[in-house]
Amino acid sequence: MSPLIEKYKGIHPGIILERLLSQKGISQRPFALSIGEYPQTINAITKGRRKLNTALALKIEKKLNLEEGSLALLQTYFDIKEEKSKLKQNTPDLTLLRKSLFWDADMSKID
C-alpha cells in the first residue's frame, strides 16, 4: 500500500487534494479547468461536501502525478469509516438516571 494511503486512511480525499494543491502552489480554479471540471466541483470536494468519484479521481491523479487509484482508495476508506460510525448506536447510560424519575417503568426493559 502506498504511504499516502496509509498516512491518510479514513480522511476525506478532498482534504488531501486541497493540501496537495497548496503544497504545489496550484489554485483550485485553474486546476479544475485544466482537468476539464467545473471549479465548483473541485471546491465542493476539497471542502468535504461532495464525494470523489472514480473518473474524477483518475483525472486528478494523472494531473498531479499520483499513484493510480490512491485518491479513489482514500474515498473508499472514508466511506467505510462513515458507515462504521453510522452503525454505532449511541445509547444513553440509563443507570445515571434516578429511578424515582421513572417510577412507573422498569428500567431493565427500556431499550
Question: Can you put this structure into words, describing what you see?
Answer:
There is one protein chain. The chain has 6 helices and no strands. By secondary structure, it is mostly helical. Helix 2 (13-24) packs across helix 4 (39-46) and helix 3 (28-34) crosses helix 4. The longest helix has 18 residues, at 70-87. The two termini are 43 Å apart.
Strand content: under 5%
Shape: elongated
- Beta strands, count: 0
The description of the largest β-sheet is:
none
Assembly annotation: single chain
Secondary structure: helix percent: 55-70%
Low-confidence stretches: none
- Succession of helices and strands: HHHHHH
What distance separates the N and C termini? 43 Å
Integer average pLDDT = 88
Write a brief caption for the model.
The chain is an all-alpha fold. 56% of the residues lie in helices and 0% in strands. The longest helix has 18 residues, at 70-87.
